[in-house]
Amino acid sequence: MHFRIILRILGILLMVFSTTQLPPIGVSLFYNDGAAHAFAIAFALTLAIGFIIWLPVRGVQQDLRTRDGFLITALFWSVLGLAGSLPLQLSAAPHLSFTDATFEALSGLTTTGATVMTGLDTLPESMRYYRQQLQWLGGMGIIVLAVAILPMLGIGGMQLYRAETPGPVKDTKLTPRITETAKALWYIYLTLTIACALGYWLAGMTPFDAIGHSFATVAIGGFSTHDASIGYFDNPAIEIIAIFFMIVSGVNFALHFFAWRQRSLKHYLQDPEFKFYISLLVFITVVAFVALTLTATYEPLESLRKAAFMVVSVATTTGFATADFAHWPSMLPFMLFVAAFVGGCACSTGGGMKVIRVLLILKQGHREVLRLIHPNAVIPVKLGRRPISDPVLEAVWGFFSVYLLVFVIMLIALLGTGLDQVTAWSAVGATLNNLGPGLGEVSAHYGDINDTAKWILCLAMLLGRLEVFTLLVLLTPAFWRR
After folding, report:
1. Which of 475, 218, 457, 426 shows the shortest CA–CA distance to 325?
2. pLDDT tens column, 220-249
3. For residue 279, what are the contacts with CB-CB under 8 A and spacing of at least 6?
4. Residues 254/238, Cβ–Cβ less than 8 Å
5. Which of 311, 353, 358, 389 is least enclosed by beta carbons within 10 angstroms?
6. For 377, which DSSP code?
7. How far apart are the C-alpha atoms of 284 and 103, rounded to whole Å?
C-alpha cells in the first residue's frame, strides 16, 4: 500500500472540493441572505486541511495500484461528507448538529435524497442552492471529475475510475484514454443539466428553482428547494420534463455517448438493459394507474399523472414527490419501494442494484429451470446476441448475495436502536438504494430518528453509492497484506 501517494491524492482532492464552496458564497451575496460567512469558513478550513495533508508528500511520485484506488475512494467519500457538512453546522440557519449535518451532506453527495431538514422554504437561498449542488457533484462522482485532472498532476486515474464507476463491468471505457472518458461523461452530464434547467424554466420555474431542480434531477438525487418537492409547483408540464430527464439520467451513459458520437438512436433500441428498463417502468406505471383508478384514490386522469411521476421517481431512485405514495392503497407502496431495488442502469446516476444485474439474475434463473428439463444441455446466458461469461454471472450473484446480507445486517442493527419494523426496513432500503424517502417514520424526513440509526444509515448510503464491495473489500485481511 502506497500511503504517501494516497495522502497526496487525498490532499489534492480536498483542495479541489474546497472550491465548490465558492458558488454558494456568490449566491449568498446576490440574495444578501447572510450565510456567506459559513461557506467562507468552510472553504478556508477544507482548503487548509487539504494543503496540510498534501504539503509533506507533494513530491512523491509512485504508480497508483488498484488497492490504492479503493482506499482513496472510500477515504475521500468519508472525508467529503465531513467537509460538506461544515456550512450546515456553521450557518445560523439551519445550524444542524454534527450528526444531522453529516447525514445531510452524505445524503446529498451520494444522491440519496434522504433529508433531516424541514422548513426548506424559509432557509437562506444559498443553503437551498448548496444542497442541490451537493447532489449534482455527487451524481457522476467527484472522483470521476478528479480523474480528468489527475493526469495533469502526474497521477494515473484508471484505478480510481474502476473503484467509482457503477455497474457490473468495471473495465469498459468509452474512449481509449481514461481522461477522455471522464471528460466525455461530464460533457454529457453537463449538457443534460443545462437542457433540464432550460426545460424547467420554460415550464414556469424561477431560474433559481430551475437550476436547483435540474441539479437534483440529472443526478437522480431528489433534493428540492421546497418542502413539497415537485408537488409545490402543481404543474403538469414541469412533471413531464422531470419524468423525461429522470428516465434519461437513469440510462447507461455509454448509450448517450454513442448516440451523440454517431448521431443515432439505434443503440438504445438494440440494448437489452435499456429495453428491460423501459418495459419495467411502463409495466409498474400501468399497474399503479389501474390500482389508483379502481380504488378511486384519484380521478382517472389524475391517477395517470400521479402514477407516472411517482413510479419513475421511485423506480429510478430519484425521490421527488408529487404525492405521498406511502399512503397509497393496496400493495402500491411496497411495489414501488421494491422497484427501487432494481434502480437505474449500469453507468448511470441511478442507485439500486442496477437493471443489468437484475436482468442477468432473471436470465440465469431461467437457465436453471431449463437445465432441470434438459440436464445435459449447454445453455448460454445471453444479452442480446452476446453470451455472458460465467465469471461475470458469478460476480453478479456474489454482489446480489452480499447486497441482501448487508441489508439484513443493517435492518437488524436499526431494529436494535428501537425503530419499528416498517421504518427500519424501508430506511435501510431507501439509503442502501440511494432512494431517499422511505415508509413509516421516514416517509417525510429522517429528522426524528435517533442519532445511532442515522450513523448506520450514513454507512448504508456510502455502501450503496460505492456498490458495497468498494467499502467491504477494506475489511478483508487480504486487502492489507503485502
Report:
1. 426
2. 999 999 999 999 999 999 999 999 999 999
3. none
4. no
5. 389
6. -
7. 31
**Distant-in-sequence, close-in-space partners of 98: CB < 8 Å, separation ≥ 6:** 85, 89
What letter would DSSP give residue 383? E
Cell representation of residue 190: 453537463
Question: Using CA atoms in the order 411, 323, 85, 429, what is the torsion angle rounded to 10 degrees?
Answer: 20
Average confidence (pLDDT) over 380-394: 84
H or E element that contains 129: helix 125-140
DSSP code per residue over 408-470: HHHHHHHHHTT--HHHHHHHHHHHHTT----SGGGSS-STTS-HHHHHHHHHHHHHHHTTTHH
Which 8-state DSSP code applies to residue 473? G
Radius of gyration of the chain (CA): 22
Residue holding cell 399497474? 287
Strand-pair partners of 387: 382
Instruction: Calculate the alpha carbon distances from 353 to 195, 279, 340 in Å.
Output: 28, 17, 9
Distance from C-alpha of 88 to C-alpha of 221, rounded to nearest angstrom = 18
Mean pLDDT, range 411-440, rounded to an integer = 94
Answer yes or no: are the C-beta atoms of 108 and 434 closer than 8 Å.
no
Could you give the angle at the alpha carbon of 165 between the alpha carbons of 161 and 168, nearest 5°? 120
- In whole angstroms, what is the distance from residue 310 CA to residue 324 CA? 9
What is the model's pLDDT at position 165? 57
Model confidence pLDDT, tens digit, residues 30-73? 999 999 999 999 999 999 999 999 999 888 877 777 777 778 88
CA 383 to chain centre: 25
Query: Which of these ranges, 58-67, 267-276, 317-326, 413-422, has the smallest mean pLDDT?
Result: 58-67
- With a pLDDT cut of 90, the percent of the chain lying above it is 62
Question: The C-alpha cell of 324 is what?
Answer: 405521498
Cα–Cα distance measured from residue 381 to residue 68, given in angstroms and rounded to the nearest whole number: 34
Task: Read off φ and ψ for residue 438, nearest 5 degrees.
Answer: -120, -150
